Amino acid sequence: ESDIDALGVKFFIKVFEIAPPALQLFSFRNETSLHDNPKLRQHAVHVMRTVGQAVAGLTDVHTLLPVLQALGTKHAGYAVQPEHFAVVGKALLWTLEQG
């Protein structure tokens, strides 16, 4: 569990390094220390688990596709923009490379 915590936090810190305005989309935007923030850690774990489930679901695209579509719809309500996906992709690849 601590590995997924650490990777998730590392991922989000990288997102905010690449695109600082992205932090404004989150409830923990006004917190002073993001590295130790429980809200960020909780969200990061949830995101990392979702990424893991998506990767595991690649063998069953018919089941995975509606889940990803629902996730996209949910995030549209959070003011996530198409250009944010490139940032997330870059941060995710960086995080995976770092291990």
Describe the overall structure:
It is a single chain. This protein is globular. It is built from four helices and no strands. The chain is mostly helical and 99 residues long. The mean pLDDT is 89. The chain starts with a helix and ends with a helix.
Instruction: Tell me the fraction of residues in β-strands, as a range.
Output: under 5%
Low-confidence stretches: none
- Describe the largest sheet: none
Distance separating the two termini: 14 Å
Label the overall shape.
globular
Helix content: 55-70%
Helical/strand content category: mainly alpha
Q: Could you report the average pLDDT, rounded to the nearest whole number?
A: 89
Number of helices: 4
Order of helices and strands: HHHH
* DSSP strand count: 0
Radius of gyration computed on alpha carbons: 14 Å
List keywords for this structure.
single chain; mainly alpha; globular; 99 residues
Task: Give a quick precis of the structure.
The chain has 99 residues and is mostly helical. The protein is 70% helix and 0% strand.
Write the layout of secondary structure elements.
Blueprint: H1 2-18, H2 38-56, H3 61-76, H4 82-98
Helix pairs in contact: 1-2, 1-4
